[in-house]
Amino acid sequence: MSNPFDWIRQSQDGAELFATLRYVTGDPKDEGTLRGMKDEKLHPSLGPPPSALDGPCLRCWVYPRQPGAIYCPTCQFIVAGAREAELLARRAVVIWGFVTQLPQQLQSGRAPRDPSVYGAYIHDEHHFLMLLYYRELQAWLRELALYHGGSLKGLLQICPTTRSKDFHMGEMLCRMIYDEARFPADQLRIRFFATPHYVYHPRFYEREGVLTFEASEFLQMLDMAVVFRSVLPPHEQKILRKLLLMDDPSEAQFYWGRFLGCLTQEAKDLLNAWKIRQWSKPQIHLLYALAEYVEFYQSG
Question: Could you say which DSSP state residue 37 is in?
């Protein structure tokens, strides 16, 4: 009946995806519960048709409910686990990979024991799904490049997790998968969806040049985000963003001079070297989105 990927596609938000990955991969802490559920799945039975007195599970709409409950055992486990995982899921990023070979991190079996990897699912020899702590994205991609160099080709699609009632996590994943075959496997590319709504309007952001990158280019952009966070304190980052997104050029020019007077020489040199005032608004949004995924260093 339902296979692991069917359960993954039913995830309403990031917390449910977190709990579902625990279920389909068999977290040792839940060994007894999972064994019972998986034994039950070997001999599945369909739930009764909806009626005034009974019906199937109100989440999956396939399997029978537990006695006195509205969910089947599997959905009950996922919903309960999602409540516990809500805070962790907010700090996670989803990676869907369509590659010529599985990354070494997954082949070695280290991923489930890595504390920064909240969950990993291998769909087949070319597809995998990971739920990763968002501040470890840069380190994980660097490790990927170190292990594989140019031998790994394909597409990595990265997007933030969603919260309940915002965007459906499973639907977003299906939309990402739908587009993966458009890209030839001649190099490793990365599609970075800065916010969930990027997934629903990929053509627009593709035209703006802020969606799909070569792997080396994307790592360079993450390095830029590290420098940006390190050179400009948070309050200066906020002021800069307001100035760059102003609709009135004359007003922006007036405040720009005053703003530069408050910056260190290092920050002035950085902004001048980048020619940041010539960037498009999507490029500015992308820089600030990437800055959330990296750490910063303290100079001098």
Answer: H
Tokens (6 digits) for 184: 């030839």
Nearest-angstrom CA–CA distance, 169 and 61:
18
- Among 212, 236, 234, 232, smallest CA distance to 224 is for 232
* Half-sphere exposure in the Cβ direction for 221 (13 Å, CA): 25
Question: Is the pLDDT reported for residue 35 higher than 50?
Answer: no
Q: Which two tokens stand for residue 168?
A: 């459906």
Q: How many CB atoms lie within 10 A of CB 189?
A: 20
Q: Cα separation of 243 and 224, whole Å?
A: 20
Structure tokens at 72: 């089947």
End-to-end CA distance of the chain: 60
pLDDT at 47: 81
Percent of the chain with pLDDT strictly greater than 90: 71
User: What would the two tokens of residue 249 be?
Assistant: 């050029």
Q: Alpha-carbon distance 256 to 142, whole Å?
A: 36
CA atoms of 241 and 236, how far apart (whole Å): 9
- Relative to beta strand 127-133, strand 117-122 is antiparallel
Among 173, 176, 179, 211, smallest CA distance to 192 is for 211
Q: E-assigned strands of the chain?
A: 92-99, 117-122, 127-133, 154-160, 188-192, 212-214
- 63: closest CA among 80, 51, 76? 76
Q: Alpha-carbon distance 31 to 47, whole Å?
A: 25
- Does residue 285 register a pLDDT over 70? yes
Residue-wise pLDDT tens digits, 48-87: 888 777 899 999 999 999 999 999 999 999 999 999 999 9
Radius of gyration of the chain (CA): 22
